[in-house]
Amino acid sequence: MAKIAFLGLGVMGFPMAGHLAKAGHDVTVYNRNAAKAAAWTARHGGRSAATPAAAAAGQDFVLACVGNDNDLRSVVYGDTGAFGAMAKGAVFVDHTTASAEIAREFDAEAKRRGLGFLDAPVSGGQSGAENGQLGIMVGGDAATYASAESVLKIYAKAISLIGPAGAGQLTKMVNQICIAGLVQGLSEAMNFAVRAGLDTDKVLSVITAGAAGSWQMNNRATTMVQNKFEFGFAVDWMRKDLGICLAEANRNKARLPVTALVDQFYAQVQARGGGRWDTSSLIHLLAKD
After folding, report:
1. Which of 88, 172, 202, 288 is catalytic?
2. What domains sit in the chain, N to C, each tagged with a CATH number?
3. Per residue in 72-129, pLDDT tens?
4. How many CA atoms lie within 13 A of 281 on its CB side?
5. Does 22 qualify as catalytic in the annotation?
């Protein structure tokens, strides 16, 4: 069993850290809102720490799942940051969906300090985190990955080392680009079915078994038609992720016309007050008044 710190107890980090504790690891948690850390220890045991540095001191692995690049820097650098407290040979694993640039930055700094680093964003949403069924895409050195793989597998349905530092984040961008197009297509299809007067349950019973089938269709199509968006991955978070995708595409000259369009559709959802709605709320822009 390993000594592990987990930084960030949001809708993803809270259950992920819980799986580690349930597996028998010695887990110390940190959260910016201390009340959330107290709630976690009340449910799962372990300990909480007042700062990322206090959580990271003496640990074999330090895992983080926070909001964005700036949040990451706040828990990694400075007098209260994790890097300064970690012992040589310890490994920092970043589950945040962030930029490939910050992954490469952290990797270089970790090597300078004698630490291991992996960028390991996840896919599967809140339900995937709660059920330990996440897809984890990893960037980093093979030896570092090998040392951490058994820990990460605890909440993984699928996990793979994609390439060097930054490759995990780039793969997550591929994932989000796919989802953006899928959800828009599904929104248009289900709105079309409703306007055509079709029984959407019967439609879905057939097309989910064919080439159009997808996770989004299986898990969101029915609730989309019912105008239910109070679960899953929030529009605000998706826009953050798509902003990262579009910025990276600007650097590598990849064309993302559909992604850019869907990002603007999500901006319209935000303008309607739907920033915390699930990403399937794209259909709200198409539905009848």
Report:
1. 172
2. 3-163 (3.40.50.720), 171-285 (1.10.1040.10)
3. 999 999 999 999 999 999 999 999 999 999 999 999 999 999 999 999 999 998 999 9
4. 27
5. no
